[in-house]
């Protein structure tokens, strides 16, 4: 198995296959330091936690991660908690994608399958045959050829795998670019809340999250054209104070250690397979972070794919790999819809008519058990397959 990309999808796929006796080589064009430093998502669905625990990577997650039993929805004058165990019997965990990747890399380098960093010129070949290959240049500048039974493209939106799949006659994409972005910060400040707060405000959305009992992760809705250098720490904290304002409560301030602006878009590429090349994770789909689905979708993809590949490579049966794209895409579109729903409900855009519709939807979720349960079931994770 050749795996292109050492993000969580590629690394987890390699580990799932190794536990079933299937060899793999993981190729990554960035350095280990770069991969382990990327700040990404932090909410793990129940199935993601269960999967990581099942492959022996749950110890640090359960020791350092934060289990959460719900979220708060806020709009001016109201903060309402959705209790996930009460609504759907599940929880979520706050444990940064950066930490998940560190755990996966450590396990991979501790006697696991080969993991090669800083490779270049990666190109899958002959994917429509039973003997696909990957050409690449290793970190020392030497041309290499990796002969495979199967290739997994877990190399993100800009990698070569998605382009190769899209060149097939059935290739199609869907995309939605949102008219806002997130300004995100990490701060050395104890979270002032026990659960995440999703806040609608006339000036824009805000999200109060956390990475540990001492580190907060906070976001502000901003225009995509904004420049991070125009946002001083003081301006950011003042905007957070405004959007989270609630009598008797305040945001905890502290030193800002990281800040960036993240564009918002939805993207789906289909099919997720061409011959013996299979896509997973961001190579096939991107969702706005409002629904906390990006990392979890990647885990769901490779969980499906690993099961299908074991059947193909060990039993010679192709039924699950033939169904992989359609099966994965059903969940992808469900999660894409949920991410769109959360994004559309919470981000201020349009006119006052749109604002009243958003407030009406928020009030519905906060007052209806059925509406709250629908949100909770989607947020904590739908079944795989």
Describe this structure in words.
The protein has 385 residues and is α+β, with helices and mostly antiparallel strands. The chain has a single domain, classed as FAD/NAD(P)-binding domain (3-Layer(bba) Sandwich). It has 12 helices and 20 strands. The strands form 4 sheets. An 8-stranded mixed β-sheet has the order 6-5-14-15-16-13-17-20, with helices on both faces. Strands 8-2-1-12-19-18 form a 6-stranded mixed β-sheet, with helices on both faces. 44% of the residues are buried.
What amount of the residues lies in strands? 25-35%
* Shape by Cα distribution: globular
Termini separation comes to 23 Å
Q: How much is the average pLDDT?
A: 96
Would you report the number of β strands?
20
User: How would you name the CATH homologous superfamily?
Assistant: FAD/NAD(P)-binding domain
Please identify, by name, the CATH architecture. Answer: 3-Layer(bba) Sandwich
Number of discrete domains: 1
How would a crystallographer describe the biggest sheet? 8 strands, mixed
User: How many helices?
Assistant: 12
CATH topology: FAD/NAD(P)-binding domain
Low-confidence stretches: none
**Secondary-structure-derived class:** alpha+beta
**How much helicity do the residues have?**
25-40%
Report the top-level CATH class: Alpha Beta
Radius of gyration (CA) equals: 21 Å
Query: Could you give the order of strands across the largest sheet?
Result: 6-5-14-15-16-13-17-20
């Amino acid at each position: 198995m050749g795996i292109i990309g050492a993000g969580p999808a590629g690394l987890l796929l390699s580990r799932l296959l190794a536990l079933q006796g299937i060899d793999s080589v993981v190729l990554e064009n960035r350095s280990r330091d770069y991969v382990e430093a990327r700040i990404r998502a932090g909410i793990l669905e129940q199935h993601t936690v269960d999967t990581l625990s099942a492959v022996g990577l749950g110890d640090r997650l359960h020791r350092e991660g934060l289990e959460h039993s719900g979220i708060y929805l806020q709009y001016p004058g109201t903060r309402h908690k959705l209790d996930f165990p009460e609504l759907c019997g599940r929880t979520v965990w706050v444990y940064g994608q950066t930490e998940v990747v560190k755990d996966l890399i450590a396990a991979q380098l501790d006697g696991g399958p080969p993991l090669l960093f800083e490779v270049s010129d990666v190109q899958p070949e002959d994917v429509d045959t039973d003997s696909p290959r990957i050409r690449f240049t290793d970190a020392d500048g030497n041309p290499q050829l990796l002969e495979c039974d199967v290739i997994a493209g877990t190399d993100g939106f800009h990698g070569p795998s998605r382009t190769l799949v899209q060149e097939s006659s059935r290739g199609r994409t869907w995309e939605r670019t949102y008219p806002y972005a997130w300004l995100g910060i990490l701060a050395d400040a104890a979270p002032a809340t026990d659960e995440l707060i999703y806040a609608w405000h006339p000036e824009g959305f805000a999200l109060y999250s956390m990475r540990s009992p001492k580190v907060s992760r906070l976001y502000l809705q901003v225009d995509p054209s904004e420049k991070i250098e125009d946002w001083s720490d003081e301006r950011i904290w003042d905007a957070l104070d405004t959007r989270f304002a609630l009598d008797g409560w305040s945001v905890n301030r502290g030193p800002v250690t990281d800040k960036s602006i993240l564009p918002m878009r939805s993207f789906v590429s289909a099919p997720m397979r061409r011959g013996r090349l299979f896509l997973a994770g961001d190579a096939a789909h991107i969702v706005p972070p409002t629904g906390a689905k990006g990392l979890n979708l990647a885990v769901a993809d490779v969980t499906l794919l690993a099961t299908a590949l074991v059947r193909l490579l060990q039993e010679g049966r192709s039924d699950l790999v033939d169904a992989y794209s359609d099966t994965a895409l059903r969940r992808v579109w469900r999660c894409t819809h949920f991410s769109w729903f959360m994004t559309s409900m919470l981000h201020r855009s349009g006119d006052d008519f749109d604002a009243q519709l958003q407030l009406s939807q928020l009030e519905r979720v906060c007052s209806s058990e059925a509406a709250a349960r629908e949100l909770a079931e989607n947020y904590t994770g739908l079944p795989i397959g």
